[in-house]
């Protein structure tokens, strides 16, 4: 982007402040933010605004006020498709870490507290034959379902708001009659819905109470989907067997009570963090900028 478009880079790779972003809105024609750069209406709608394309480096766009963009005539693009496998792989990683208590084991060993092999030590849960319930049935959910079915013989249940027909490559899967039906039947619940007002605290205390005793919750979607105070309570009471979380509501802050909650595996938003995926995301953002500059249709337009 620097070579082709003379881009100014965020050279130290830290999230930009609201002031910096608001200033950037007046300085550039195109902005390429990430999930760590919130763009509410107040930052977008600044006097002297110049930006007309926001080419987001990432697929989720809940950090951008899309209504404000539409109102202000700012086009928005994202990077769908290229982070599917990496994010699904990480969801599987979290599922296995939570079920097999790998986080607890690593912490114990590093703390010098391992006393040696014993029959009852950190006994976890096998994934084989268990029911994986996916909330949302987009690309990442389907990829996770395929991996879980093919590798571990898991049964696949999913919840989506409209009736879904199987696509090529999908594993055998059953669409749950309702969210509650899925929550009551799954041994592992994995979240794959977008963030934003519509899904805020979809997994609240009532939803957690509907989950099976000893079940696991996996979240690689957005932190806002889960009520973390309720989740910490469900882990502490022993109602849930564990939780694997890669995303949090106000990153990089970790919600209170989670870090020491039993069975919690916490990762710092690594879903798309492979060299291959991050390069592919960059190529997608670049293609969107190039199309915009050439006056062509935007390949990945979301607003
Ligand atoms: C996304 O793309 O939305 C991820 O959360 C960051 O890669």
Notes on the structure:
- 35% of the residues lie in helices and 13% in strands.
- It has 303 residues and is α/β, with parallel strands linked by helices.
- The strands form two sheets. It has a seven-stranded parallel sheet with strand order 6-5-4-7-8-9-10, with helices on both faces. A three-stranded parallel sheet has the order 1-2-3, sandwiched between helices.
- The radius of gyration is 21 Å and the shape is globular.
- The chain binds (2R)-2,3-dihydroxypropanoic acid.
Name a few traits of the molecule.
3-stranded parallel sheet, alpha/beta, single chain, 7-stranded parallel sheet, binds (2R)-2,3-dihydroxypropanoic acid, 303 residues, 10 strands
In a few lines, what is going on in this structure?
The chain has 303 residues and is α/β, with parallel strands linked by helices.
Helices and strands, in N-to-C order?
Answer: HHEHEHEHHEHEEHEHEHEEH
Distance between the first and last residues' Cα: 22 Å
Order of strands, widest sheet: 6-5-4-7-8-9-10
Provide the β-strand percentage band: 5-15%
Q: For the residues shown, what is the average pLDDT?
A: 98
Structural class by secondary-structure content: alpha/beta
Low-confidence spans = none
- What does the radius of gyration come to? 21 Å
- Helix coverage percent: 25-40%
List how many beta strands DSSP finds: 10
The global form is globular
Biggest pleated sheet:
7 strands, parallel
Q: Which compounds are bound in this model?
A: (2R)-2,3-dihydroxypropanoic acid
Q: How many H/I helical runs?
A: 11
């Amino acid at each position: 982007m620097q070579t082709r478009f003379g881009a100014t880079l965020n050279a130290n790779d830290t999230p930009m402040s609201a002031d910096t972003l608001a200033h950037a809105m007046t300085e550039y024609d195109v902005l390429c933010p990430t999930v760590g750069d919130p763009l509410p209406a107040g930052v977008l709608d600044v006097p002297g605004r110049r930006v007309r394309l926001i080419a987001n480096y990432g697929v989720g766009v809940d950090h951008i006020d899309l209504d404000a963009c539409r109102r202000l005539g700012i086009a928005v693009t994202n990077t769908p498709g290229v982070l599917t496998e990496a994010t699904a792989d990480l969801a599987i990683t979290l599922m296995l870490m939570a079920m097999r208590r790998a986080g607890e084991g690593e912490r114990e060993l590093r703390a010098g507290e391992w006393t040696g092999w014993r029959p009852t030590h950190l006994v976890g849960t096998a994934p084989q034959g268990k029911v994986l319930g996916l909330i949302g049935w987009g690309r990442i959910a389907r990829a996770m379902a395929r991996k879980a079915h093919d590798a571990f013989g898991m049964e696949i249940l999913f919840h989506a708001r409209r009736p879904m027909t199987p696509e090529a490559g999908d594993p055998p899967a059953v669409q749950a009659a309702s969210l509650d039906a899925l929550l009551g039947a799954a041994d592992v619940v994995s979240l794959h819905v977008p963030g934003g007002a519509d899904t805020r605290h979809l997994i609240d205390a009532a939803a957690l109470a509907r989950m099976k005793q000893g079940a696991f919750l996996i979240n690689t979607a957005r932190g806002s989907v889960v009520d973390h105070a309720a989740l910490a309570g469900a882990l502490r009471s022993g109602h849930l067997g564990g939780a694997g979380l890669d995303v949090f509501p106000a990153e990089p802050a970790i919600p209170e009570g989670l870090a020491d909650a039993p069975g919690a595996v916490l990762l710092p938003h690594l879903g798309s963090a492979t060299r291959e995926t991050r390069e592919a995301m960059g190529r997608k953002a670049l293609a969107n900028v190039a199309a915009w500059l050439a006056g062509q249709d935007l390949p990945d337009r979301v607003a």
